[in-house]
Specification:
Blueprint (H helix, E strand, L loop, with lengths): L20 E3 L6 E3 L4 E2 L10 H7 L15 H21 L6 E4 L2 H14 L6 E5 L4 H12 L3 E5 L9 H4 L7 E5 L14 H9 L3 E5 L11 H4 L3 E5 L10 E5 L14 H4 L7 H39 L3 E3 L10 E6 L4 H7 L3 E2 L15 H5 L4 H4 L2 E5 L6 H22 L1
Parallel strand pairs: 3-13, 5-6, 5-7, 7-8, 8-9
Antiparallel strand pairs: 1-2, 4-10, 9-10, 11-12, 12-14
Helix pairs in contact: 1-9, 2-9, 3-4, 9-13, 10-13
Bound molecules: pyridoxal-5'-phosphate (PLP).
Length: 412
């Protein structure tokens, strides 16, 4: 999770502050949140107002349990089923193929642990070194319990080397898991080779589409995948809600037991309000994907041009690889990323994936792409979202340029 920090200089030190203020972790003073330029939409997005409006009644006025047998329970169940259709439509799935979860981390755990659990003797997992920790740590956890875990290397451009697939996937492989788009670099994977390799040996194919859905076109039939993990809070829906797509006829062992909800695939009382919000967010994402992408590309280009026009040593990571329209990872040669963030406290960006950046260390993704740790620690990820404007980008550049210059001067 990314902590928003505020500058030490010239800030009022007043504990009696309105909730629109954030606490500065450097000086413990306060700074108004509206001063901040948020360019970290891969970490999370705001709940859109349409989503919020749709959710509100389900907290109190319509608080019913979707598993209850009475009429009110059925009304809640209907709302969940509408959302199931909306989420399914976003990825070209059938509603019965959608299992609601608490988010992508849980979906990924269910996909990998569940695939191994139902694989009758197969114990192999094949994944890639640039995957999110939710995949890497789950695969490692399974390896500690007897699975064999092959982590494929990637090229300098963040892509899987097709040759590395040969021999990695075999008749012992239960599941191959390769993400559709990387959260730190935005690199979009060509899943064709990995899917074919899984198919050849009868293994399941899972993909983490957390950052891809709503940003690029992704269709489960077209991609020919078995399992896909997605999360509402990356597409202007609420946190704590997600889904696992499970292709019809694919069996996965449940991970959470008790009650048999979600067709015995994930037990637990459904988060009706969250699921309703997820559904509306998915419908909006399908409608706005192309226009969002067009705007994002323009804003990212303005950001890169603005920074590179005023600073030397600005390099885009995986510059010539196809990337998400809203994401750019930039190396500022000779300037430590954490130090830049401390000197540009009003610009909310990330020096690694949101889930690990509270503990600053060079990104495992960048290092897997062959970047030395020192270079990787000079990289910042910028990700735009629907609310981002050209003015935000201009202001971010205006704050970052002197910040990078200052850091370089101090460390020279
Ligand atoms: N996978 C990717 C690629 C992500 O970016 C994230 C979150 O940052 C996750 C998985 C975990 O998602 P969630 O926050 O829904 O558990």
């Amino acid at each position: 999770m990314q902590i928003i920090v505020a500058a030490a200089e010239n800030q009022p030190h007043n504990d009696d502050v309105p909730p629109s203020w954030v606490r500065c972790i450097y000086c413990h003073g306060r700074r108004e949140m509206s001063d901040h330029i948020y360019l970290d939409y891969n970490a999370t997005t705001p709940v859109s107002l349409e989503v919020l409006d749709a959710m509100v009644p389900w907290f109190n006025e319509r608080f019913w349990n979707a598993a209850s047998a009475h009429t009110l329970g059925m009304v809640a169940r209907d709302a969940v089923e509408i959302a199931r259709h909306q989420v399914a439509d976003l990825i070209g799935a059938h509603p019965n193929e959608i299992v609601f979860t608490s988010g992508s981390t849980e979906s990924i755990n269910l996909a990998l642990v569940g695939a191994l659990g139902s694989s009758s003797g197969r114990t192999g997992i094949v994944t890639a070194a640039t995957e999110h920790k939710a995949v890497l740590d789950t695969a490692a956890w399974l390896a500690e319990r007897g699975a064999y875990n092959r982590v494929l290397p990637v090229t300098a451009s963040g892509e899987i080397d097709p040759e590395m697939l040969v021999g990695s996937v075999d008749e012992h492989t239960a599941v191959v898991s390769i993400m559709a788009a990387n959260n730190e670099t935005g690199v979009i994977a060509d899943l064709t080779g990995p899917v074919e390799a899984a198919r050849r040996f009868g293994a399941l194919f899972h993909t983490d589409v957390t950052q891809a859905v709503g940003r690029i076109n992704f269709d489960v039939e077209h991609s020919d995948i078995d399992l896909a993990s997605l999360s509402a809070h990356k597409m202007y829906g609420p946190k704590g809600v997600g889904a696992l797509y499970v292709r019809r006829n694919v069996q996965i062992e449940p991970v959470i037991h008790g009650g048999g909800h979600e067709n015995n695939r994930r037990s637990g009382t459904l988060n009706v309000a969250g699921i309703v919000g997820f559904g509306v967010a998915a419908e909006l994402a399908a409608k706005q994907r192309d226009s969002d992408a067009e705007r994002s590309l323009q804003l990212i280009s303005e950001l890169v041009v603005g920074l590179a026009g005023q600073l030397d040593g600005v390099g885009v990571v995986a510059e010539s690889t196809t990337r998400l329209p809203n994401t750019v990872n930039i190396r500022f040669a000779g300037a430590d990323a954490e130090a830049i963030m401390a000197n540009a406290p009003t610009v909310a960006v990330s020096s690694g994936s949101a889930c690990t950046s509270m503990f600053p260390h060079p990104s495992h993704v960048l290092m897997a792409m062959g970047m030395p740790a020192e270079d990787a620690s000079e990289c910042l990820r910028f990700s735009t979202g629907r609310p981002t404007t050209s003015k935000d980008v201009t202001e971010a550049v205006a704050v970052l340029v002197p910040a990078v210059t200052r850091v370089r001067e101090v460390t020279r």
